[in-house]
Amino acid sequence: MTQNLYQIPVKSISGDSTTLAAFEGKVLLVVNVASKCGLTPQYEGLEKLYEAKRAEGLEILGFPANNFKEQEPGSEAEIQAFCSLNYNVQFPLFSKISVVGSDKHPLYEALTTALPDATGEGPMREKLSGYGIAANPVPEVQWNFEKFLIGRDGQVVARFAPDVAADDPRVVEAVEKALKAGA
């Protein structure tokens, strides 16, 4: 990987400039999230996974993105309120970013370059096509709630399609394996 993921500048949901350095040595599940998407109920499963595995070293990091049919139109304050009120989200949220296109955030450039293919991505492509939406070419993020798993060593170890939920056995197994590695 050309750039250390922990050094890439990001902003917290409250607008503070930071990096992911505070999460170094932990297992990270980075997810591009949206409040008005058919997959938005995945917040519930993400929060359950976070609560179940946080003590073992898992951090889930939510990055709101408005790239897909403008399904995250709100301000950071609106996003934070939505997540808190509707899903009691406790995992860290960050400021809205772009995860595809010419203005793609450097974090997502690094993630998609590190692991171009997503596990379970076929059905999502078919769903999008059924709605008349052209799927993004590999390695681009397909839709909201795509998940990147980063090991304790800062390397991207797995990537999951948007419709592969947090409680999917493939996600749970990958998270557990990553938590055991280097623990």
Main attributes of the structure:
183 residues, alpha+beta, Glutaredoxin, 5 helices, globular
Brief synopsis:
This protein has helices at residues 42-53, 76-87, 106-114, 122-130, 169-180; strands at 10-11, 17-18, 27-33, 58-64, 147-150, 156-160. The chain has 183 residues and is of the alpha+beta class. Strand 3 (27-33), helix 1 (42-53) and strand 4 form a beta-alpha-beta unit.
Describe this structure in words.
The protein is an alpha+beta fold. It has one domain (5-180): 3-Layer(aba) Sandwich (Glutaredoxin), CATH 3.40.30. The chain contains five helices and six strands. It has helices spanning 42-53, 76-87, 106-114, 122-130, 169-180; strands at 10-11, 17-18, 27-33, 58-64, 147-150, 156-160. A four-stranded mixed beta sheet has the order 4-3-5-6, covered by helices on one side. Strands 1-2 form a two-stranded antiparallel ribbon. The longest helix is centred in the N-terminal third of the chain and has 12 residues, at 42-53. The mean pLDDT is 95.
